Structures
1.
Amino acid sequence: MLVRCYRAKLSVWAALCVLVLCWFYIYPVYRLPRDKEIVEEVLRQGEVWQKNQTGIDLYRKLLTDCCDPRRMFAVTKENSPMGKVLWYDGEFYHSHTVNNETYSLFVQDNPLQLPLKKCAVVGNGGILRHSRCGQHIDQADFIMRCNLPPLSKEYVEDVGTKTHLVTANPSIIEKRFQNLLWSRKAFVDSMKVYGSSYIYMPAFSMKPGTDPSLRAYYALSDTSSNLTMLFANPEFLRTVGKFWKARGVHAKRLSTGLFLVSLALGLCEEVTAYGFWPFSVGLDEQPVSHHYYDNILPYKWFHAMPEEFVQLWHLHKSGTLHMRVGHCPPQDGGSS
Ligand SMILES: *[C@@H]1O[C@H](CO)[C@@H](O)[C@H](O)[C@H]1NC(C)=O
Ligand SMILES: *[C@@H]1O[C@H](CO)[C@@H](O)[C@H](O)[C@H]1NC(C)=O
Ligand SMILES: *[C@@H]1O[C@H](CO)[C@@H](O)[C@H](O)[C@H]1NC(C)=O
């Protein structure tokens, strides 16, 4: 009787502990500034920005030490030989053992010409709409984009035309292209807008994402497309996630944008970020759509966009990267 009572008490305490832990997980002790405060802070800072070589060197070193982007950002024959176990970074206990079939799909080694000079990382935020940043973006030496964004005529002035690396989430293959189980033409055709860039796919992050990613690889290689498929290395994604977690980003998973910025900080001499603005109101107090091409909101608890923005803003203030959050100034000589 006594033992049973004791046990019951114990489980009540255990349940309470779990509740409290959950509470702290969902509502961390520190307080994130409210959106309005962040907007005000950004307005105060204005267009003032000065490059800080010390900050750039520091972050390249920090990221090299934690995550080794040069060697690890993609799955290569070099870092993932036959028999290597790749642990999915978005799943609890799943892995893929590199075999004959998958090994042959990996690039030999990091294919990028390093170091990259001026890099532009283009997020898909609605803030880009009417920004006239297209020319600025296209002038970068290496341009990274997120999640196969549309680059059709109506957006060119704001987002530019060139791409050197574009990420593709396997879920897009599923939603937009019927998982490539039927025709692959629509997919191959829609990829042409990215020229001869790298398609960067997290093929080994979630179990259901592997097959669509491999199918995307075959669709491109069978049609002798000019694009090169790179599979994101789950080990790299995991270490970058840890890097930001230690700096206060409590998301279940980092956004693609922050991954790309981290990659750029590790590989580029200069980084400018466009289209990162996770707030529904712009600097001119006008509503801002979620993406520059639509206003579909993401699943709420998955990413922690304002937290990520605060981190990026710190880097901006210290001169480590340049965030463009408003309109881009007209260029001398313009389009002539
Ligand atoms: C430059 O970056 C370093 C390292 O992040 C930082 O300690 C320093 O304060 C920055 N300098 C300026 C002027 O912001
Ligand atoms: C890999 O495949 C090739 C032919 O496709 C075969 O000759 C070779 O033995 C295979 N290697 C292993 C380790 O299975
Ligand atoms: C690949 O690039 C070449 C040269 O830029 C171009 O002529 C060709 O049409 C491209 N192929 C495809 C499938 O887009």
Note: The two ends are 90 Å apart (CA to CA).
2.
Amino acid sequence: MQKDANIDWKNLGFGYTKTDFRYISIWKDGKWDDGKLSEDNMLTMSESSTALHYGQQCFEGLKAYRRKDGTIQLFRPDENAKRFNRSASRLLMPEVPVEKFIDACKQVVKANEHFVPPYGTGATLYLRPFLIGVGHNLGVKPAPEYIFCVFCSPVGAYFKGGMTPVNFMITEEYDRAAPHGTGDVKVGGNYAASLLAHEDAVKKGFADCIYLDAKTQTKIEEVGAANFFGITQNNEFITPNSPSILPSITRYSLMHVAKEYLGLEVKERDVYVDKLDEFKEAGACGTAAVITPIGGIEYKGKLHVFHSETEVGPVTKKLYDTLYGIQFGDVDAPEGWIYEVK
Ligand SMILES: *Cc1c(COP(=O)(O)O)cnc(C)c1O
């Protein structure tokens, strides 16, 4: 390490810490510039930017992991790049070439190397690539210019005292995404719309709410801002299949781990909220926690408990340990999943 970032890695939460460098590239007159690292963590833009008024923006979240041997790796950044471009295209923003996206991530990690937490702390360097419409504009239309930025912040281990299940409630009051809306892309508008539903669930004593499909209100879609999976009584890994779910890279990685490492049957299909007893275990998955075990789900005033409200189920634990091991370089990864930052 070049210098000591002087951070208490063990007590780090999920919050913003200013690091030394971020990557910035500008799209103007139909093309991207070469991009550069900047020490300035403030952005300047037109007061009339589409990102500020019409939500023309998208983002990604991925992590850099310190391995036991001190080297640093990224986990499937190519998948983040591809998803980023699907989000960009959906909002009529220019795509960022996959190579440029990955190179930007690597540059930011390299330049902030001393902020990558030590192996064994569970802490990581979280990367936040984002794309915003900027430039002078008033009417509802795509922006004339765009900023692509990748910044990073060290974040603590998600589970400080070991993995513990949490309870969620089904919300029938709020929808997250409409069938042909923007639920399948990672755009800020989806998050803005979820703030109130989240606050409502927390006030009622739950970790977050679970959204049903907007059309029929019968099928599970997302668990807050994470994907759902369940393990059936006969050991199948089930995850919902819907065009309005954000395709989680953690979820697709877990599907692979379930099949290839644990030998489970894997299916993407409808998950009916009134048939939860088909599952012996359930969890929420995403980059932040890998897996949050679901203790119970409240629906129409009744709490349905899966494995336990206090203990993690054995299949969930194995899935978690395997993927976590892959991400930190302790378990052999499938080909192409790991990008070393040199
Ligand atoms: C980012 C996100 C996820 C998780 O995706 P990962 O690629 O696994 O981090 C799940 N649901 C929503 C709504 C998201 O925005």
Note: The pocket of pyridoxal-5'-phosphate is lined by residues 61, 186, 222, 225-227, 246, 248-251, 286-287 (CB under 6 Å).
3.
Amino acid sequence: MISMHKSLNLMLLVVTLSVSTVTHASSTSKVVTVVTTIAPIANIIQNVGSNYVNVIAIVPSGTDSHTFEPTPSIAKLLGVADIIMVNGLDLELPTVKLAEKVKKPGTPIVMLGNKTLDRKDWQYDFSFPRQHGHPNPHLWPNIALSIRYAEIIRDSLIALDPVNKTGYIANTEVYRANLEVLDNAIFDCIKSIPEKNRKLVTYHDSFAYFAPRYGLKIVAAVQPSNFSEPRPREVIKILKQIKKENVAAIFGSEVFPSKVMRHIALETGVKFIDQLSDDELPPPPNNSFIGMMANNLTVMTDALGGDSGCMKNVNSNALVH
Ligand SMILES: [Zn+2]
């Protein structure tokens, strides 16, 4: 018993020593504090940065990122950031404005979308009209563009933390391979949908850059630019489009509950599925950007008459390493 007690003590000592060693190591080797906005981008940063970074996402899960206003506690977080990464294309204007005021002088603000897509390729539509001057910001559901996000994140982190360059490069390659599996799987999903059904009517307008890549036609996005419900005249127009295009299903999301979508579904007899997401991640173990897109495609493909087995090889773990 005595010797067991002694060895327990010894074990405790070893544990204490190793903990203090770890603490010591992390305080000398730099861990980059990255403050970002929405969960999908936070998850991409986490996959690229792995244990070299501490990622803080400031937009709470289930919150409308388009109308999000940062609170004073968020100003504090922005103030400690070594780097601030946002989507850009005007998605987070209040946050960027605040960040410019409160950030440390040397902290860069990286606008991933603006670095990814030339201004001439920005899209404007019913929900993001050109006359308001704010483009549709949803680049990330297009996986070719989210791979660019990962590369820009990698390069920005290397610029700040060159000691860990090889680590960032290796992480990005592993993550890129996983995104490429997802990208190919999305093509397979869409191909499995009968051609006449490859049409999207969504409430929130988050597939404007996704649809052209994968061969879907956007018939309508219902949500007006002020994020309220559409007016009766607009609803009548959408009803006509749905009938004319013989749309198989219409989609909403939990972040934007809409009575109008239920009304449209009743009027047209078309299925309504309110499970798409552009910035809320699914629950663990699939709480990843890739998991969110896998869910979207499973839901979409099923409802439009395709084979949702298309997502079976996709790795939805929060971290792919
Ligand atoms: Zn959105």
Note: Residues 30-179 form a domain with the Rossmann fold fold (CATH 3.40.50.1980).
